[in-house]
Amino acid sequence: MRVTENPVKRRRGEAGYNLVELMIAVFIITISVVALYEMFIQGSQMLTEERHRAKAVELAVARMENLKSFHVVCDTIPRRYAGRFEEYIVLEDGQEQPLVADCTVTITPSRSRQANGLPNYSHVSVEYVWTERESGRSQKVEFQSYF
Description:
Blueprint: H1 19-73, H2 76-80, E1 83-92, E2 99-109, E3 122-131, E4 138-146
Antiparallel strand pairs: 1-2, 2-3, 3-4
């Protein structure tokens, strides 16, 4: 009777994978998938924040143009008012709850006066402030002008 080697037993250098190699490969793939998932989540948050910022800029420009046209149509009213006016606007109407931004319009008349007693110009500031839901970061868009 002839004794032969066990055919299942491998020698060093022969082809095939053992359990340690397989576990290392699974570990590396898992880390890669988790990193890609985190990149996707952060990219999605950044796109959402940029969309909100673009909407706030659009609203601030519209508000500033509205104040300028109001200044041209009725010269006395915007220059006589000074102070802060606040309102809340909806940046995104989501399924859960809307994302609301605080809008502050500050009008400060100049110290120099015209012959009729009105200020020469007013410093107008339009500011939108909100906090992002996902990241919790506070965002701010501000426009300033003189007219």
